Amino acid sequence: MEEIYAKFVSQKISKTRWRPLPPGSLQTAETFATGSWDNEENYVSLWSIGDFGNLDSDGGFEGDHQLLCDIRHHGDVMDLQFFDQERIVTASSTGCVTVFLHHPNNQTLSVNQQWTTAHYHAGPGSPSYSSAPCTGVVCNNPEIVTVGEDGRINLFRADHKEAVRTIDNADSSTLHSVTFLRTPEILTVNSIGQLKIWDFRQQGNEPSQILSLTGDRVPLHCVDRHPNQQHVVATGGQDGMLSIWDVRQGTMPVSLLKAHEAEMWEVHFHPSNPDHLFTCSEDGSLWHWDASTDVPEKSSLFHQGGRSSTFLSHSISNQANVHQSVISSWLSTDPAKDRIEITSLLPSRSLSVNSLDVLGPCLVCGTDAEAIYVTRHLFS
Amino acid sequence: MVPSCPFIYIIRKDVDVYSQILRKLFNESHGIFLGLQRIDEELTGKSRKSQLVRVSKNYRSVIRACMEEMHQVAIAAKDPASGRQFSSQVSILSAMELIWNLCEILFIEVAPAGHLLLHLLDWVRLHVCEVDSLSADVLGSENPSNHGSFWNLVTILVLQGRLDEARQMLSKEADASPASAGICRIMGDLMRTMPILSPGNTQTLTELELKWQHWHEECERYLQDSTFATNPHLESLLKIMLGDEAALLEQKELLSNWYHFLVTRLLYSNPTVKPIDLHYYAQSSLDLFLGGESSPEPLDNILLAAFEFDIHQVIKECSIALSNWWFVAHLTDLLDHCKLLQSHNLYFGSNMREFLLLEYASGLFAHPSLWQLGVDYFDYCPKLGRVSLELHIERIPLNTEQKALKVLRICEQRQMTEQVRSICKILAMKAVRNNRLGSALSWSIRAKDAAFATLVSDRFLRDYCERGCFSDLDLIDNLGPAMMLSDRLTFLGKYREFHHMYGEKRFADAASLLLSLMTSRIAPRSFWMTLLTDALPLLEQKQVIFSAEQTYELMQCLEDLTSRRPVRGESDIQQLQDEDIETTKVEMLRLALARNLARAIIREGSLEGS
């Protein structure tokens, strides 16, 4: 693991996200957005890692990420997602959900749309109005789903002023994170250790399924869905434990892996190499989990009725092989038997790593030590 | 290029700490500080020293990086006032680096005689850098030797001991004017042959001294012979190389400060100076240079104190001159690791290092964002660190749960259970007020706060009594082992279990659970009526569910409940109505219990199979 560049940016970073590449593009990731927190003035910023043709002897500075533009953000940036190539949605600690628009020609950001009272404890009409932090946001063009400390789920649509659907009191505790399973299903995790699946096609305010660990109700902080297999979900908890779930079967996780020593803030499957998983934590470390196993070549000789027919059997056994590989290596992984390689990616322990994102061979993460780390060679 | 400036400005605190660029200084130095604390205590001798020197260089490079960036900002500043502000910040940082560098040479590197001078030369070259721009200027011109500043450049190269470069310049002059080629060559030879200690050299100090004496005498002879009389520039160069103070003082402008004067003087009069002799030269250099015209600046006093190896004076003067504790805290900590401060204790108990670190960390806590850095500094203050941290950490404003979680993690890692409880209690109260009972419960579970868990459960039960159904079933149904935290919570969980059993028509189990809830006394008294009312449908079932024993116990509970009811005196209509309902309920219960008892006795009394 070489060439990870660090840059101190004078703000504690709460979220980092790569800008998605246009589908079918051959480029590597170039731009990422960050959100800051805990400042008197917080900013949403866009950075570029640009193009370095030749690395010279002091390669350190060549790899630096440069600030493109930024914009003031009210409240802490609790979550951040790219809605499409130009728009960024952020969740704020003031309960507001904002859509920012990036103008590439003059490199500025502007506010495109805002829902200021997306999350609150007591309603806007009541005398004791108090806002609640919005803790998670996820987008699937044109829909935006947000969750917050008020236990509320909102479904917004870009360019609609009001929420399309709101589930009040969806949860009696704080909802920490949300992800799409299949549209129109979403999955939320909360601070009493439950995963809840909600189906927007159904009326009513009840989840369609609830999964949880028996044993200690450890709050879950992050969730991510396997990019290819929509029933495989990974969650990270307050005790640093990584759990893999199969939402089709049962209410228990498939595997529990003891990982970090403190809260796991984010978990991500690699979008194009889903055998690789990344987690970051309050204990200041960022781990790369590599579950890719060598599938032994199955014999292509397939004896049928005493006659071995290589040509025919080849296609049949191929089908068998294909069926085998569809089963996710995460689900079939037995931690005792198959080895998952875990690598720590940051050079030294620092303050909490709050966020990470991966796209292709590039990884970006942000820490409470006010530093952003970028690497373009994840799999070297 | 960074201007070298002998002045230190005192700037108000409100500008300092919050500057964007200085934040990088704080963050990066925090990382270096932690690395330093974790250096293996076992290491001694050379390896330890080299590690400490490396740490010192890291600190200095961080300061320099900050300086560079601030310089860029100062240049790019749109209005002159902020440009000036940035420039003065740059000069403060430059002064800090100057002092730190000297402290590194004298206290950490502890260079012996001979090497000492080499380090001091490097130090001066680093900080008086007009040379490079001047050199670029002159060399870039058509005819370098005719450039107006040519001789200035050569002189300053000699003053800085950069004799090879000076020789190169002289050769240009030799090429340009053949008349003086001869004497330029002689001068060049003198420069080449000056003995100097090079790092890889194995000569002893005495050898070097001897050689240097010879060389010095050779220079003297040239002076006596007036070899260079034709060229006044070369003549003054010769005098400089002989260490003639008057000649050196003539070059005041080029020297620009007294410590440059000091180092040059040492170079050409006593290159094998010992560290302990430095302060004689330092004091006299300062006096000579200032010449009674001006008084020493704070920076001068600090440097002088350093030359006198008076570390405490250095730190004291720096604390007074600088408005931020960053510099003195980190420098003192580093010097403490070099075991240079052990012997002194301040009057109020903690030693100087701890005092400064505490001050610095407290300052960080005043910042909305940098408090996280302060935590680690408190950790390494053995006497008062923990107490200070306990006080500070409770006062951090918590506006989101995520921030609260981070603060709690910090407290838990240090076993500060009191702080954990108090923070969780605050958060739980907030949650209850916002009607987020699930959150309230999860906070009380984290703090293992049984009392609060009881409070939350009471709320749930009250809601049930009022509305007839539970809110937040998802929480209560899935309590798990957290149920054991408080009796009330256990009751709540078990009660829901009862509902489940009833729903699944496992009546016998439900019945015994209900009974155990009452007899084990974990049900709050106020709830008994509800429990008994829940028992009614079970009593009214076709089959007998409660045994005779159980029915007796139920009757016992009912009696317990009714006997305790106070006799009411004056009561209004509403209370009378309530009482009516109560009496009806009690009567119904009595009837049901009696009927059940009858059926139970009969069933138990009859023979099996009949």
From TrEMBL, chain A:
Compartments, record wording: Nucleus
PROSITE patterns: WD_REPEATS_1
InterPro entries given in the database record: WD40/YVTN_repeat-like_dom_sf, WD40_repeat_CS, WD40_repeat_dom_sf, WD40_rpt
Keyword Protease: no
Bilayer-crossing regions: none
UniProt cross-references to SMART domains, sorted A to Z: WD40
Keywords: Nucleus, Repeat, WD repeat
One GO CC annotation: nucleus
Origin superkingdom: Eukaryota
Name of the protein: Nucleoporin Nup43
Species this chain originates from: Macaca mulatta
Source taxonomy: Eukaryota, Metazoa, Chordata, Craniata, Vertebrata
Automatic annotation (TrEMBL), chain B:
Main location: nucleus
Keywords assigned: Membrane, mRNA transport, Nuclear pore complex, Nucleus, Protein transport, Translocation, Transport
Superkingdom of the organism of origin: Eukaryota
Compartments where found: Nucleus, Nuclear pore complex
Keyword Thylakoid: no
One of the GO biological process terms: protein transport
GO cellular component: nuclear membrane; nuclear pore
UniProt keyword annotation of Protein transport present: yes
Task of the protein: Functions as a component of the nuclear pore complex (NPC).
Assigned protein family: Belongs to the nucleoporin Nup85 family.
Subunit structure: Component of the nuclear pore complex (NPC).
Name listed for the protein in its UniProt record: Nuclear pore complex protein Nup85
Species the sequence originates in: Macaca mulatta (Rhesus macaque)
